[in-house]
Amino acid sequence: MPPISEEPQIPESAQGPRVTPAAGRTAPTPRPVPGPRSAATPRPGRPGPRPAPPAQRAQPAPATPAPAAPVAPAPTSPEPAENRSAPQIQLIPAPAAGALDAAEEAVDLLLESGRAPGDILVLTTGEQHPWAAHELSFGEAAYWAQHDAGDDVFFADVSAAERARSRPVVVVVVNDDADRTVAARILPVARDRAAALLIVCGDPQTINPALGAGV
After folding, report:
1. Can you give the three-state secondary structure of the chain, one letter per residue?
2. Which residues contact 148 (CB under 8 A, 6 or more apart)?
3. Parallel, antiparallel, or unpaired: how do β-strands 167-173 and 120-124 relate?
């Protein structure tokens, strides 16, 4: 009785044809199947698609500087000629004895109308105003310091008109018996000191000829 093999024997006829490798050749070793290739992965042995060249940046054309506009010379305005307008002149008729009172009333009206005290200068042709006489008793330095401060009505003798500074309003008090020649000499100086208004208090018969003489 033949011995019983532990493994079943497969008949050669059932194993299929045996392929004998040709002499001198070895059987190829099966390679693993590659996974799916992406479009970006080139096929082995073949170059992939060349990357698109970077877009060339357009070079801006060199800017041509615009021609500078010719600079026109600044117009030179002619120097203004000194053309100071003459002040307005107002006459307040009064006798020589009452000219000072008329001037004080005129000053009060000016202050009530809004004029600043420092805008007013009062010049007397005769007797000093009491305020001026009082202030001069303390010395001329203190007296003229108040004039230079320019913050109050200033009273002075007409002989000091050349030292007094110009003010918007000048009041001339013809409170003496001055003749027409004296008035003609005084009023032009007072007019030069008045920037806006010249008020003359006194006798019209003495003042009018001086005013008509070009004051």
Report:
1. CCCCCCCCCCCHHHCCCCCCCCCCCCCCCCCCCCCCCCCCCCCCCCCCCCCCCCCCCCCCCCCCCCCCCCCCCCCCCCCCCCCCCCCEEEEEECCHHHHHHHHHHHHHHHHHCCCCHHHEEEEECCCCCHHHHHHHCCCHHHHHHHHHHCCCCEEEEHHHCCCCCCEEEEEEECCCCCCHHHHHHHHHHHHHHEEEEEEEEECHHHHHHHHHCCC
2. 165
3. parallel
pTM of the model: 0.60
Q: What is the pLDDT of residues 190-214, one digit of tens each?
A: 999 999 999 999 999 888 887 765 5
Q: What is the pLDDT of residues 77-112, one digit of tens each?
A: 444 444 457 899 999 999 989 999 999 999 999 999
Residue 3 has pLDDT above 90, yes or no: no
Q: Please name every residue paired with 167 in a beta bridge, in sequence order, or none if there are none.
A: 194
User: CA 48 to CA 40: how far, in whole Å?
Assistant: 7
Q: How many CB atoms lie within 10 A of CB 104?
A: 17
Rounded CA gap, 145 and 135, in Å? Answer: 11
Rounded distance between C-alpha atoms, residue 165 and residue 142, angstroms: 16
The whole-angstrom separation of Cα 125 and Cα 164 is 15
Q: What's the token pair of residue 2? A: 């033949």
Cα–Cα distance, 112 to 164 (Å, whole number): 24
